[in-house]
Design brief:
about 500 residues, mainly alpha, 5 domains, about 55% helix
Length: about 500
């Protein structure tokens, strides 16, 4: 069969004639390779002859193509970290194959996440035979854990494997001056690049953002402004103040959030002055509250939204926003202690609005002292604000607060459970078990509590849960049986890592 080299001189003539037309540029092959004599028609070629010759030469070129030489990949590197114990590896195999028929697929995925967390926390690796299954089955939330337990062999496998595994490749440590992410990356990568640069040289990051400011979309520019929280300092105040005059709402809001986090900024002082002008201590245990009479241009520039949502009065809407944006330390001008301020009675029933604004400020500023004071004063909210406020508490106080809610009102407590680390602290586990023992208590929240407990209750509580099955209304037996099965498996998973 003719090789591609022997047809190289003939192919351009055939192609040229085909593109221009046989009438305008006839092709009369002269140097036909020996193996193709008789197969390629003698010229000059008409259209049919040209197509025949092209087909013959195409087949000859392909048939004579030399196979590419593929280099044998280098052997996988040896691991330096230890592997998980054999019993844990066997458990991982069952979770990946779905052979554990005691639980459904969703629960198996949750148990797989727990296995991965335990291995990663101990610095242990999954065995090589499980790596492909982990790459194929891990959901987005489990991917960092898969990278942690995959070791050097996972990196080798991803380098040799299909492109869909590229997420598991360890990203090279980007130098602050590298421009690839900034010039061509998605907005997440660009924001990360800017944050890295700001971490070493805030001024350079500020200049880089200024260069691209005019052509950025509002949403992207807001994300880049948020990235400037790294290295945030008073040198950033001038450009952030200028951003408050931008016509795009997202840009103004992002700038206002950073200015609100900048100690000593004029923005914080303006908000503090507005809040203290609205709330004044006139006598012992009394607050005189005077909401803004209007939402003036200065307030709108600083991010106060003029139009209230349906069902909310304008002045209450403005007051809550002003208090929420004010630095919490400004209230020492009224009372040195948050609890003392909250114990004061507000005039004209403005107390709930004041407390809502303070709760929003405590959440935004992550102030555990104010969060504790507000909750102790009985703050509650039908929406997410109450849950967010609880999550701001220090870990020990958070656990105690959630445990109290569990004992007092399961329906409201289930909204607080996601704020806890899993497995839950002992005080919360004890409270949950107390509620489950109460045969007389019945609520919709109890069903949700049982579902949350599948991943939140510590596996060590499996024996105590088993004791409840014989003395429980039939309504809950099936759910408790499921919970006990899952807890027993989790208990075994923990024991297999011992």
């Amino acid at each position: 069969m003719s090789s591609p080299d022997t047809t190289a001189a003939l192919w351009p003539h055939l192609l040229s004639s085909a593109l221009v037309g046989t009438d305008r540029r006839a092709c009369a092959p002269e140097a036909v390779p020996e193996p193709l004599v008789g197969a390629v028609p003698a010229g000059p070629l008409d259209p049919d002859g040209l197509l025949t010759a092209a087909a013959v030469v195409t087949v000859a070129r392909r048939a004579g193509q030399q196979p590419a030489r593929i280099e044998t990949p280098a052997p996988a590197p040896a691991e330096t970290a230890p592997y998980a114990p054999p019993a844990a590896q066997q458990r991982l195999s069952r979770l990946l194959s779905g052979s554990d028929v005691e639980v459904d697929r969703q629960v198996q995925r949750e148990l797989l996440g727990e296995w991965l967390r335990l291995a990663a926390d101990r610095g242990l690796l999954a065995a090589p035979q499980h790596l492909v299954s982990l790459l194929e089955q891990a959901d987005s939330g489990q991917r960092p854990l898969v990278r942690a337990v995959g070791g050097a062999r996972l990196q080798w496998l991803c380098a040799e494997g299909p492109g869909r595994w590229s997420w598991a490749m360890a990203a090279p440590e980007a130098a602050p001056g590298a421009d690839d992410d900034w010039d061509t990356g998605r907005i997440e990568a660009r924001a990360a690049h800017l944050a890295r640069l700001r971490g070493t040289d805030p001024a350079a990051g500020r200049d880089l953002l200024a260069e691209v400011w005019p052509q950025e979309k509002a949403a992207d520019l807001a994300a880049l402004i948020e990235a400037c929280v790294t290295g945030l300092g008073l040198d950033d105040e001038p450009w952030l103040e200028k951003a408050l005059d931008d016509r795009r709402t997202q840009v103004r809001d992002a700038a206002a959030r950073l200015l609100g986090r900048l100690p000593g900024s004029a923005y914080r002082q303006r908000m503090a002055d507005r809040a203290l002008a609205c709330v004044e201590a006139v006598k012992a245990r009394r607050l005189e509250v005077t909401p803004p009479a209007e939402c003036d241009a200065g307030m709108r520039r600083d991010g106060i939204i003029a139009k209230p949502p349906a069902g909310t009065g304008e002045r209450a809407h403005w007051l809550a926003q002003v208090i929420a944006a004010a630095p919490l330390d400004c209230w020492t001008a009224v009372d040195a202690d948050p609890a003392a301020l909250l114990n004061r009675k507000a005039s004209d029933d403005w107390g709930p609005t004041v407390r809502q604004g303070l709760a929003r400020a405590a959440v935004a500023q992550r102030d555990g002292q104010w969060a504790k004071a507000l909750l102790s004063a009985g703050f509650s909210d039908a929406g997410e604000l109450h849950t967010q406020l609880v999550a701001v508490l220090p870990p020990d106080e958070l656990a105690d607060t959630v445990a109290q809610h569990v004992r007092r009102n399961v329906d409201s407590a289930v909204r607080l459970l996601p704020a806890l680390p899993e497995p839950w602290p002992t005080v919360v586990c004890d409270a949950v078990l107390t509620v489950l023992r109460d045969r007389e208590r019945s609520s919709g929240g109890r069903f949700q509590l049982l579902r949350r407990a599948e991943t939140g209750l510590h596996p060590a509580y499996a024996p105590q849960l088993a004791a409840l099955l014989d003395d429980m209304p039939q309504l809950y037996v099936q759910l408790l049986t499921r919970l006990h099965t899952i807890l027993a498996i989790r208990h075994d998973i923990h024991r297999e890592f011992a």
